[in-house]
Structures are given as structure tokens and as C-alpha cells.
Write a structure and sequence with these properties.
Blueprint: E1 8-9, E2 29-31, E3 38-40, E4 65-66
Antiparallel strand pairs: 1-4, 2-3
The protein binds iron/sulfur cluster (SF4) (2 copies).
One iron/sulfur cluster (SF4) binds near residues 47, 54 and 55.
């Protein structure tokens, strides 16, 4: 994994349930063009720094969403 400054979704774990998308205050989450996974747009995700807690992670039933990482 290369450097990852924003939250991100592991495609192999995402079951495309749509639970995460509506809770994102930045509208950063959407279905990938393949419809095989959801994706977080790094240009939009601000890691929920302006709200009290990260909203997307608790919604995911398969723990497919991960916080920022560095390699
Ligand atoms: S961390 Fe916050 S801003 Fe980023 S995708 Fe998740 S809900 Fe959206
Ligand atoms: S909540 Fe998790 S499994 Fe559902 S669409 Fe989002 S990332 Fe995929």
C-alpha cells in the first residue's frame, strides 16, 4: 500500500451495500464505475476532521473502510 492520506475502501471486502455513502458529510463516497466496490474520492474526503467522529467506518458491515495510512 502506498501513501494514503484519506480514508479508503478495500475492494475485496466491500459488498456494495450503500450504508456508508449517505452518512458522508462530504459526499466523498460513491459506487465505482464497475459497480464492484464503492470508492472514496481523496479529493473530497477530509477524514471527517470537522465533525465529531468519522462517520463512514461505523456503518460498514464488513469493515471494508480504513483510516489514512502511510506505507
Ligand atoms: S472519513 Fe468522513 S469525509 Fe471521509 S469518506 Fe468517511 S465519512 Fe466521508
Ligand atoms: S458500507 Fe462498506 S460494504 Fe457497504 S458500500 Fe460502504 S464500504 Fe462497501
Amino acid at each position: 500500500m502506498s501513501q494514503q492520506a484519506t480514508h479508503w475502501i478495500e475492494p475485496a471486502k466491500c459488498v456494495v451495500c450503500d450504508a456508508c455513502r449517505p452518512v458522508c458529510p462530504r459526499n466523498a463516497i460513491s459506487a465505482h464505475a464497475t459497480d464492484a466496490t464503492y470508492v472514496i474520492d481523496p479529493a473530497l474526503c477530509n477524514n471527517c476532521q470537522n465533525v465529531s467522529a468519522v462517520r463512514c467506518i461505523p456503518q460498514c458491515p464488513t469493515n471494508a473502510i480504513f483510516p489514512p495510512q502511510t506505507a
